[in-house]
């Protein structure tokens, strides 16, 4: 009898030990999502997991951010450095704008393998970047570096960023752009370079940007554009070059942008002598929405619009030799009008994404809408120094402020991915607490039930 009691007690002890071990394994393996602690001074939201630590005077990336956080907001703090060990989590969206970042270590973001959006804008002390700063971000789609006072960009700064689609570099202090700087950005569609100090565009500066749709270069100091600078930009639809120092633009430059739809060249000191003939002829054939192109010289044409000069204005100009790639001229002179329009607009090519790797590139869940435009009457926009022909009056005209009025405003709207922002995540109404808001899920309830049952068995 005593032996049976001993065996029974031993069996019960073994059963309870087994249940205890099983319970520990269950809690380790099936750890319910959402139970991770929220970092101090941060607010956390589930589904998708969002960690907001904005405006808390943080001087470094906080520890304890849950590894599976999909969005991490660290904007408007006082973070000064980003090191290779700063990020112990994976996330898709990381906002660091409005800090005091002065240095980014090479490979600082290499652990963020699934990052899709990185915002480093409004860090005015970030004047220099190391070449490997963005190493490993091969799934990055949107990169913001506006208003950082960047003076130069390393030649390999965008190396292997094959998925990048939106690049914001406006309002920095860039004086030049190196050849092949963007050559790996085969899926880039929007490039914002306005508000810098760029003086020239070389032959290979935009090489590789075969899917670029919008290029903003206004408010720079551009004086010279190489005749083949846009040779890879066959899908470009919007080009802004206004408020620069351009006196002329080679005709070949614009012929390479066969898909162009919106063009702004106003507020440049255009020279309308013989050197302007190639651009004038391009305007004769192009059916686009264009700003005015007002002549600054020679004096007899000052104030006129280059687009509406007449054939006789170029009667004494030598024609370019059509067989010459260098633009040398012959002694043949033009004596008759060569004004015509294309009967049909060029068919827009399919914007299928070019794949440089085997991985598919995810499309960002937002797009920019191209505004409609209504031509103004000829008398409102054209000089009246001569009578317009019917063809001249039929040319498309555009109010300089008619489209894309807010294209450069980084703060014009709240940026959310998939339109499911956490409530008031970008407002000052955020509570400064470390509490985490958690909604029980079916997995939580099941785990609670099983743990309760096991504890009851153990206590019996």
Automatic annotation (TrEMBL):
Topological type in the membrane: Lipid-anchor
Family that this chain belongs to: Belongs to the Nogo receptor family.
The name this protein goes by in its record: Reticulon 4 receptor-like 2b
Gene Ontology terms for molecular function: ganglioside GM1 binding; ganglioside GT1b binding
Major localization listed first in the record, in broad terms: membrane
Domain (LRRNT) ranges: 37-71
Subcellular location: Cell membrane; Cell projection; Membrane raft; Membrane
Keywords linked to the UniProt accession: Cell membrane, Cell projection, Glycoprotein, Leucine-rich repeat, Lipoprotein, Membrane, Receptor, Repeat, Signal
PANTHER family tied to this protein: ANTIGEN BSP, PUTATIVE-RELATED, RETICULON-4 RECEPTOR
GO biological process, one term: positive regulation of Rho protein signal transduction
Record's signal peptide: 1-37
Origin superkingdom: Eukaryota
